[in-house]
TrEMBL record, chains A, B:
<dbReference type="Pfam" id="PF02728">
    <property type="entry name" value="Cu_amine_oxidN3"/>
</dbReference>
<feature type="domain" description="Copper amine oxidase catalytic">
    <location>
        <begin position="238"/>
        <end position="650"/>
    </location>
</feature>
<dbReference type="Pfam" id="PF01179">
    <property type="entry name" value="Cu_amine_oxid"/>
</dbReference>
<keyword id="KW-0560">Oxidoreductase</keyword>
<keyword id="KW-0464">Manganese</keyword>
<feature type="active site" description="Proton acceptor">
    <location>
        <position position="315"/>
    </location>
</feature>
<keyword id="KW-1015">Disulfide bond</keyword>
<dbReference type="GO" id="GO:0009308">
    <property type="term" value="P:amine metabolic process"/>
</dbReference>
<dbReference type="InterPro" id="IPR016182">
    <property type="entry name" value="Cu_amine_oxidase_N-reg"/>
</dbReference>
<dbReference type="GO" id="GO:0048038">
    <property type="term" value="F:quinone binding"/>
</dbReference>
<feature type="modified residue" description="2',4',5'-topaquinone">
    <location>
        <position position="399"/>
    </location>
</feature>
<keyword id="KW-0186">Copper</keyword>
<dbReference type="Pfam" id="PF02727">
    <property type="entry name" value="Cu_amine_oxidN2"/>
</dbReference>
<dbReference type="InterPro" id="IPR000269">
    <property type="entry name" value="Cu_amine_oxidase"/>
</dbReference>
<dbReference type="InterPro" id="IPR049948">
    <property type="entry name" value="Cu_Am_ox_TPQ-bd"/>
</dbReference>
<dbReference type="InterPro" id="IPR015798">
    <property type="entry name" value="Cu_amine_oxidase_C"/>
</dbReference>
<comment type="subunit">
    <text>Homodimer.</text>
</comment>
Length: 683, 683
């Protein structure tokens, strides 16, 4: 690590920085270099996104196989820019050749809303006469307009306005004091903002008016806690330290840890992207995943009253999980020895900006990895596990999403998401009925029912790119109780269904059969089990999409209709709800439904495929979730099945080991990791 | 803590030990005192179990409400003893009155198999001529009989032998070397052992013989790892220390931590029993659970070939999760500051024996408890969580079960079970087909399909004993897409079904509706949400019981047929598969089915009830699980819903907090828990 640092410093000083890895995100200077080229040809534009146009897979696989003797994939910038009149341009800039290789005006789409786009709205709202008028009606005098706030959301889709004009809806709040939690004081009307002209073009006003909440503030900042008796004083510290540093090495953005190797990318949209994940299996570096990311999400709210149907944020596609990422510069989100990575983006004006410490990489103790005691003599082996977490936290207006990609020593990759932050709220009058569409979490505060549905994109590379997906259901064996073949009725087995086309692979979760999905390489058979090497998706938080078929959310969030989709790999199929999500009507449904409609009969057997998995939770709020929500975790596992010859973590040093013969001879056992001869203590 | 210890030492020296709490397990001297009384009246017996006969609830609630002015419940020993001819006696001994208050000969039952019962079998097997003969047939010469091992299991139920005679089946293995993992060398025949006469009465021999495995050993002990290249050397230490000690207090067996109070009991059967769990809600000590335990489990194997149908261990009811508990005397299973509790049991001869450090109580860091950043100005609060774990680990022959009862600061109680140890294995010939009933995890080693199904017993006390259970399903709202009431199709809500009788409450899991169950007190309404205070069971690992209706497992493990049962509270209904499980035929099905058959129409609404929840996993083995299995976790949550007025953890000191006004004025923010003024660093 020290040598790595020294190398970096030297390179910085001498200007001999190594060429970026083809998977590396664009650097600040690469971003600005792309902007300079575009400016030259197309003049002044607002920049929406400039991100790595990832190397085409065929070319990249060739390069990865032999980087020294093949052509290095070019660095290419994928650009979204906006001109006057909300005109959207999609472009590609080849940075190696310093030229624009694609430049298209794209009609009828709206690219995502950036943080800068969001920040403008509140200022406009506060001085708009129509907004001031509405505030007056519900009890906010115009001299208090500086106490009015808004969370600007994309409009989602509103058929009255279509998608020709770039719009945001302003969810309105009030703060009696600047430090008050505004979600206790939601306002009942919703201005519509034109991002191009920076004007309020319409206000949705409900038929029943709701004066601003008169309840006392409900805060969680230190002064509020002090006023209610102060912080608890009975927590003694737990110190987690790594005096010798971390157990992983960092080579550019490639992390090596416990036989794992992974390239850590990041983009404005998906946040963390993990590429070329391999496992060193006794000297043999075996491919497992070519690419893993959280590709999209949607948070539909369940209140059918207008205009709440518009509340169904695609936090990645409409705002960008990367753009909204917290800077962990203060280092207070994690414990132990942390390695951080920054993230660079383009701003509206075309300069690059950096989120310091956007990605956190650290290890944690993982409790018992394995243990077995022989009941005859108490001979035992017990080994503690370790895990590696690659994480970021993003703030989507009211909510926080903490995303942890976790690598385990036993070959498992886990995705854990913790949900925290604040409920989206709407105003209600005293005594008003929620009609079951929400919960009054505090007087005058209606938190609507909603779902958090995430789509994980898995590009498997199980011992190579030719993979096949099987659905696995636990099923009872044939034969009734009493029959010769199943006399006692206890027969059961794993029923495997091979998906041969994308249309066949559209599938839902089935809890009763403990359904899992195996990504297998049928060309490579485990010599012991005689089954194909595979990784199994084990995911149990898989609610059905509750918005109905044919409805707005169903149309726009096609990926969320089913738990699993499988498609044949295509370089440009990255975004399961489409490339430009805001104001998409869902007619036709972009992304997955479109691809499957077009190529649903193409074979997905023994070929390069992508598995899309939608999971999440249905959230019926309660007062415990307010004013700030205790983290709610959800998790899924990608587990090796028939991939290894045995438990790949057997060589992790045990905390304690004593064999029967050691026990019998009263000789010392294995020395524990703390250096003491534990057997001699024990026997 | 120091004072506590001093008090204990003083009491020990002066002999003025305080009277046990009525929930305390029987002490060694109480056990021996019961034995002395029984011996006087009934002479020589083998003791199977002597455990606390828990105070009757009505009496106990009265005492708990006012311990100083009500009669203290008597200490009563619940006794199971075995006389000659496998005669089973169930008795109660009142220790306060020093008399036997009940003594019954119970016909047609077999109490559980103790560790002592298990230990005998291997010795008998090794010298039995019929066993020696069978060993010879599959290639083990008689001079190698010391290399033959067996895991004795209860016979489960075998209709050929019924339940008049106390039987065990010996699952046979071989160890070329004493330190070899025997599960690589399973033998193909199964002796039946009579526990009363200590003889082999029968041997089940398969029609196809399978010579003992000739594959090399597959071990995980240090010498085996060294022979394959040694332990990995790239793990740097993670130190977890609590220099100021733990954050909980211990008063006898009552633990107080972060507003929680819980009495930690333990018995030979269920292991940890948590009683009288309350939460101090701003000075108001509110009841949540009267009693929580893992009450039963069953592990059915899915191979229908005789005699594998007998492999369906009830590890708690047939062996005892307490009896099989590991001593953690070496302290190497957990990190940080640990408080241990011992466990005392009776042995066969009637003396008391103690497992040192049977229960581990410790805290762990729990990551982000809550966080919110205001996207306008990066004002933020981030607070780390802490959890309290009360755990034990038990070894059920080949498998290890690590049971963690986890208390969270947000009011959540979590049950986590980690499964590790070694697969149960059976022999197979080279090239033999598993027929899908198992996996060849190593040459010659067939690991059969199986399920691990646990039954958690929840005796809720949600603000008092009068509780009601509701099934909660996420459902789409009425009205088709386009209708006035649901124009965009996005309406959805929590559909609640009240269970009014035990028969109605028999219910399965439904993943598609994200089904949960609420234990509510309908007499107490949350003033904000206007909904009853409740705790919600959130459990996602809920496979269907795969053995078929009417079959052996289905009959014997009635509790496992459904995810949830609810019964009206009865003092004697503790064991959902019955009090004496081994050799029960399941005709009629003991425990839950019997109780519901008898009292299924009694109201369970707004009364004292018990909820029984069956959860677990279906396990299709793979080579990665062998020779010792990486821990597989499963978990469930009991979460407060409408129980608190707000997030009850708001007063946990934050790692970092900065309000908008602090940010704006560039003044210092809240001092972080590490003492630095972080705001001034940040702004
Ligand atoms: Co939510
Ligand atoms: Co298992």
């Amino acid at each position: 690590m020290v040598l790595d640092r020294l190398k970096q410093v030297t390179q910085h000083v001498t200007g001999t920085a190594p060429r970026p890895h083809p998977f590396d995100p664009l650097s600040g200077s690469e971003i600005e270099s792309a902007v300079a080229l575009i400016r030259q040809e197309h003049g002044s534009l607002h920049y929406n996104a400039i991100t790595l146009w990832e190397p085409r897979k065929a070319e990249m696989l060739t390069w990865l196989a032999d980087p020294n003797h093949t052509v290095r994939p070019h660095r290419v910038a994928d650009v979204v820019a906006i001109g006057r009149g909300s005109k959207v341009y999609d472009g590609l800039v080849d940075l190696d050749e310093q030229k624009i290789v694609r430049w298209e005006f794209t009609e009828g789409v709206q690219p995502l809303i950036t943080m800068e786009d969001l920040q403008i709205v509140e200022h406009v709202v506060r001085v708009d006469p129509k907004v001031i008028e509405q505030c007056g009606i519900i009890g906010i005098p115009k001299e208090d307009m500086h106490k009015v706030y808004c969370d600007p959301w994309t409009i989602g889709f509103d058929e009255r306005f279509g998608n020709k004009v770039r719009l945001q809806q302003a969810l309105m709040y009030y703060r009696p004091h600047v430090d008050d939690n505004q979600y206790t004081f939601p306002l009942d009307f919703t201005p519509i903002f034109n991002s191009d002209t920076q004007e309020i073009i319409h206000i949705d006003v409900p038929s029943i008016r709701r004066p601003v909440n008169q309840a006392p503030a409900n805060n969680y900042h230190p002064a509020a806690i002090e006023a209610e008796g102060g912080y608890r004083k009975d927590l003694k510290p737990i110190n987690i330290t790594q005096p010798e540093g971390v157990s992983f090495t960092v080579d550019g953005r490639i992390i090596r840890w416990q036989n794992w190797k992974v390239h850590v990318g990041f983009n404005y949209r998906e946040g963390i992207v993990l590429n070329n994940i391999t496992y060193n299996d006794k000297g043999n570096e075996r491919g497992i995943f070519y690419r893993l990311s959280l590709a999209e999400m949607v948070v539909p709210y369940g209140n059918p009253e207008h205009p709440h149907q518009r509340k169904h944020a695609f936090d990645l596609g409409e705002y960008g999980g990367g753009y909204m990422t917290n800077s962990l510069a203060l280092g207070c989100d994690c414990k132990g020895a942390i390695h951080y990575m920054d993230a660079s983006f383009v701003n509206r004006a075309g300069s690059s900006e950096t989120i310091k410490n956007a990605i956190c990489i650290h290890e944690e103790d993982a409790g018992i990895l394995f243990k077995h005691t022989d009941f005859r003599d108490d001979s035992v082996v017990v080994t503690r596990g370790r895990k590696l977490l690659i994480s970021h936290v993003f703030t989507a207006a009211n909510y926080e999403y903490c995303v942890y990609w976790i690598f385990h020593q036993d070959g498992t990759v886990q995705l854990e998401i913790k949900l925290t932050g604040i409920l989206n709220t709407y105003s209600m009058n005293p005594g008003e009925d929620t009609h079951g569409w929400g919960t009054e979490v505090y007087p005058g505060v209606n938190a609507h029912n909603h779902q958090h549905l995430f789509c994980m994109r898995v590009d498997p590379n199980i011992d190579g790119p030719l993979n096949t997906v099987f659905q696995v259901d636990a099923k009872t064996g044939p034969g009734e109780v009493g029959s010769a073949e199943n006399k006692y009725g206890n027969a059961f087995y794993a029923h495997k269904t091979k998906y041969t086309t994308a249309k066949e692979a559209v599938s839902d979760y089935d809890g009763s059969t403990s359904r899992t999905w195996e990504m297998a390489n049928t060309n490579k058979i485990n010599p012991y089990s005689h089954k194909p090497v595979s990784y199994k998706l084990v995911s149990r938080e898989v609610p059905a999409l509750l918005p109905k078929e044919g409805g707005l959310v169903w149309k726009r969030a096609g990926f969320a209709r089913h738990a699993v989709h499988v498609t044949k790999y295509e370089d440009d199929q990255i975004h399961p709800a489409g490339r430009h999500v805001p104001q998409s009507s869902g007619e036709p449904s972009a992304g997955l439904p479109e691809w499957i409609e077009k190529h649903g009969d193409t074979s997905i057997e023994n070929t390069d495929i992508v598995l899309w998995h939608t999971f999440g939770i249905t959230h019926f709020p309660s007062p415990e979730d307010y004013p700030v929500m205790p983290a709610e975790p959800m998790t899924l596992l990608l587990r090796p099945r028939n991939f290894f010859l045995k438990n790949p973590a057997l060589d992790v040093p045990p905390s304690y080991a004593l064999t029967p013969s050691q026990k019998a001879t009263l000789l010392g056992g294995f020395k524990g990791t703390d250096g003491t001869d534990k057997a001699s203590v024990r026997v």
